[in-house]
Write a structure and sequence with these properties.
8 strands; 2 helices; mainly beta
């Protein structure tokens, strides 16, 4: 999991919405080799009004409705921090109109110079405690899904007023 407090490099799959679904009338974008497809995006539960970020999508099959892709998410000035984790969906928009869905499979923080910030390796897990009677590993008590806790939790940036996107 990475908090989007700066630019992020993401890799995953993009699905472009058809014109009947409200997507691009001209179909999937067809950038040339010199340019990436750039647009705006947001991560639910945010909306285009309170969580819009910039996105540049690259390394995708031009004209394909569904394709592997890479991208860079750039939060706007005065943004609210958002969690970006594998499995989350980034809604690609042109203005406020959704035109594509980017499912994130990998996410990496980027330094100010655009290089990837090395991931920190988690500390090794300690051996599970053993039950004194049976000698079997103790089973930890059931815990509610952390995903549900994430959606219900509050971040200090949630209490700041939304700023208009002076685009």
């Amino acid at each position: 999991m990475v908090m989007m407090t700066g630019s992020l490099a993401v890799r995953g799959t993009v699905v472009w919405l058809t014109p009947q679904q409200g997507g691009r009338v001209s179909g999937p974008p067809e950038p040339d080799y010199d340019y990436d497809y750039t647009a705006t995006a947001y991560l639910p539960p945010r909306t285009p009004e309170d969580g819009q970020a910039g996105i540049a999508v690259s390394r995708f099959a031009p004209g394909a409705w569904r394709t592997p892709a890479e991208g860079i998410l750039v939060p706007p000035k005065g943004h609210r921090a958002q969690q970006v984790i594998p499995g989350c969906i980034v809604i690609i928009t042109e203005g406020v109109r959704p035109v594509g869905l980017f499912t994130v499979e990998e996410v990496h923080a980027l330094a100010a110079d655009g290089t990837q910030v090395p991931a920190t390796t988690p500390a090794p897990a300690s051996a599970p405690a053993l039950d004194e009677v049976t000698g079997a590993p103790e089973i930890p008590p059931y815990r509610h899904s952390t995903a549900a806790a994430r959606w219900a939790s509050q971040h200090s940036s949630d209490s700041t007023p939304a700023e208009p996107l002076n685009v």
